[in-house]
Design brief:
The complex is a heterodimer. Chain A is 77% helix and 2% strand. By secondary structure, chain A is an all-alpha fold. Chain A has one domain. Chain A has a two-stranded antiparallel sheet with strand order 1-2. The two termini of chain A are 39 Å apart. The relative contact order of chain A is 0.15. The longest helix of chain B is centred in the middle third of the chain and has 41 residues, at 14-54. Chain B is mainly alpha-helical. Chain B contains two helices and no strands. Classes of the chains: A mainly alpha, B mainly alpha. Chains A and B meet through helix 2, helix 3, helix 7 and helix 8 of A and helix 2 of B.
């Protein structure tokens, strides 16, 4: 694994994964969307509104999973100064932020017909909203400093502190009385039928593969940003004369 | 034709179901396009900075 601490080696691996991840993303969406919108049966209570689950649940899982990835990489960065870790955390943050927002929006569009309200201050919804603010805080903090190293550190600390919210979100439906329906994944297995589980899995897979694709592209952006910064800094620091010996 | 109308109708939940899927699909595509453009812009910028450094007298 230490080999992949080197950005060049890591990106070689990441770039070789990208075309496969792209193919998997397209294939899973092409299979998952018709399953979710046509093949899967309407819910006996919720009717066709239940189809929102196939995008709401994957968005929620991605929001949580990406935050976990961000927190783990932030820890690796703070402890071992792992050079790729901070890049992975930085590149993941806007994606996690987007998935969390999609979870909240699709949840509101599901809540209105089922509960009669777009929003309620319920434990699950509130803890998910806090996750959204943690992402926004991370993104703001990471770019708040002139010195990007300090921004990395401050944001990493925020990501770690905020990770206490993850178990709170997960258990919120058990700990508090809530309108939100309980988790479909329990210790006893899944609580929904196979006809609904398959499209859900396909959509979860599609969202994950999509995340991998965008993560690789965003990592390239982060690395180029660092190179551009370094080149500018070298240019600013070095008087014109010192640039020439290398050229000769 | 009726089947397709039923499909669009979504059992009366058309507004909610199609809005939710619309927001998700548009967001995912927009994020991909923006990321791709951002990457291409960075590649051009890096190329310019590099050329700039090499051409320093």
């Amino acid at each position: 694994m230490h080999k992949y601490a080197n950005p060049t080696d890591f990106m070689r691996l990441a770039n070789s994964i990208l075309p496969w991840a792209a193919i998997v993303t397209v294939a899973l969406f092409l299979a998952g969307l018709p399953m979710a919108l046509v093949v899967s049966p309407p819910d006996y209570q919720q009717g066709d509104a239940a189809r929102i689950m196939y995008i709401h649940v994957p968005s929620a899982w991605m929001g949580l999973m990406i935050y976990g990835i961000m927190a783990a990489n932030s820890a690796a960065f703070l402890i071992w100064r792992h050079p790729m870790a901070t890049l992975i955390a930085r590149a993941s943050a806007p994606l996690g932020c987007m998935f969390t927002a999609l979870c909240l929006i699709t949840g509101m569009l599901w809540g209105k017909p089922m509960w009669g309200a777009y929003w309620v201050w319920d434990a699950r919804l509130t803890s998910m909203l806090i996750l959204q603010f943690l992402y926004i805080g991370y993104l703001a903090l990471a770019d708040a400093f002139e010195d990007s190293e300090r921004g990395d550190k401050a944001a990493a600390v925020l990501a770690l502190v905020g990770s206490v919210n993850l178990p709170i979100i997960h258990f919120s439906v058990n700990w508090w009385n809530t309108l939100h329906q309980p988790s479909i994944l329990t210790m006893q297995g899944f609580t929904v039928s196979a006809a609904m589980l398959w499209p859900l899995f396909l959509m979860v897979g599609a969202f994950m593969a999509y995340y991998v694709c965008l993560l690789v592209l965003r990592l390239r952006i982060e690395i180029l940003d660092a190179k551009i910064r370094n080149a500018r800094r070298a240019r600013a620091a070095a008087p014109v004369a010192t640039a020439t010996p290398q050229q000769v | 034709m009726d089947l397709f109308a039923d499909f669009l109708h979504m059992g009366g939940y058309a507004y909610f179901v199609w809005s939710a899927y619309g927001v998700v699909i548009v967001s995912l595509i927009a994020a991909l396009v923006m990321t791709w453009r951002g990457l291409k812009a960075r590649e051009r910028e890096f190329e310019a900075v590099r050329r700039d450094r090499q051409s320093t007298p």
